[in-house]
Write a structure and sequence with these properties.
mainly alpha; 2 strands
């Protein structure tokens, strides 16, 4: 797009996205594929549209089996239930039976990145055609948690992946 269309795409240095690898230089925070896609969406659309697309993208990511794109053979897929890199990778490592240093991890993350790019382009094209509609929403458990905890936290990830249920149902 930088070469074919030029402005504004040629104004965004690719280096601006490198920090997202490993959830922020291996901090395991939000997946770098998501942060990069969200940056592009946000640059191209108004706040309301960006919010709808990014919420849809993040919810889809946490609920979809990844990777779907697998050009070099079959890689185990998994559902992360989270946008956090460390949760997503750890879930996949457990499902695949390999460790973090296995070359398959790079193939998995590359395929997952292609999945994110594909949905991002589809959403942006649909918006340009006047047909964008969000199809994904946060996990149902989030509404239950946030009904009590909206004053002391923020988040849309499925709380139950990190916070085990209490003995007494508290929401």
């Amino acid at each position: 797009m930088q070469d074919e269309i030029g402005h504004p795409y040629n104004m965004v240095p690719q280096k601006a996205f490198l920090w997202g690898s490993g959830g922020g230089y291996k901090w395991g925070a939000t997946c770098g594929a998501l942060t990069s896609a969200a940056q592009i969406i946000n640059l191209m659309h108004d706040k309301e549209t960006s919010s709808a697309m990014i919420n849809n993208l993040y919810a889809w990511y946490s609920q979809e089996e990844h990777p779907n794109y697998q050009p070099e053979g079959q890689v185990v897929t998994s559902v992360s239930d989270s946008v956090l890199c460390h949760v997503s990778v750890s879930t996949w490592l457990a499902a695949s039976g390999v460790d973090e240093s296995d070359p398959l991890k790079k193939k998995r993350c590359g395929g997952l990145t292609a999945d994110v790019v594909k949905l991002t382009v589809e959403m942006m094209n649909n918006h340009a055609d006047g047909n964008f509609a969000a199809m994904f929403a946060p996990a149902a458990t989030v509404d239950g948690c946030m009904s009590c905890h909206k004053e002391d936290t923020v988040g849309k990830d499925d709380c139950s992946i990190c916070h085990e249920e209490k003995e007494v149902e508290h929401w």
